[in-house]
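Per reviewer request, we include the raw input and output of the structure prediction for the construct analysed in the revised manuscript.
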Amino acid sequence: MEQPIYTTRAHVFQIDPTTKKNWVPASKQAVTVSYFYDSTRNSYRIISVDGTKVIINSTITPNMTFTKTSQKFGQWADSRANTVFGLGFASEQQLTKFAEKFQEVKEQAKLARDKSQEKVETLSNHSQSESGRDTPSTNQASSINGTDDEKISHVGPEAALLQSENERLKSAVEQSNTNAKKWETELQTLRENNARLVDALQESSANVESWKKQLSACKEESDTLRNKIAELEAQCNEANQERQKNAQLTVRVKELEAELQEKEQELENLRKQAEIIPQLMSECESITSKLQAAETRNKELEGRIEGLQLDIDDSRQKQGNMKIELKKLMDVLDGKLDELQEFRQGLSKLGADN
């Protein structure tokens, strides 16, 4: 009878029979996975049951290999079931214990197979020796005693026992040969299945490496995209700052344009005032000529000098005041023109900077 020798819990998977690449969950949750030993057949099996469904029934042979593909996942190929089983454990310690037990059970299965082969070879050799030893005695008895009927009448109980033993050994040898051919055929089938499963396992390992490379490439691409996003965010911040500066400069330009319009209005007023200056100058010249004529008349009319002297003094005073005001006005106009020139230069420089 089979007895459990080791039990653990794990998530069970099987390789997809179509693609031979993807894993298909055989259980929705962690289930019990046990090693069983059959003392009558001297064999070991891994059995797992999910409710009433048997999801693992794998007889361990010496050719099997348990492979750790990650810290918590392992797999092995079963050529008889023509599939690959995978187990996902809750911790690395459970995976290590299961792998060690698998190796131990595989060694025991190898020893059991070697003992069985030794028994078969011993039985075959013994049968061949008995057959070779009994055949001459039989021929000798036939040649000595004559016919078979005469032989049967003369043979003793020991010869009959040897003959029956010989027949039994012959049947055993024939059965052994038949079993050997059957085992050779099964062994060949197992080797072919094992080769296919090894190819599937190697392909699965290659796919795992490819997936790892793809994951690494995706991580690098993700890091690159993160860096680009950070750079774009920095550029956006700089652009926002430039926009704020441009908005401030636009406001400043509008203010300067308003000031320029005011200055131009003042300049226009000054130009209008400057247009009056020639009239004033002509009036001054006319007054001067009149003053000279008056002075000439004053020479002739000395009597009127005293009366007109006051008028002349007033006229001179007004003329002096007018000249002073005209000079001040000219100075103010020159200053305004200089300020307007400087303002235009500053405005041109500001426009070039913007």
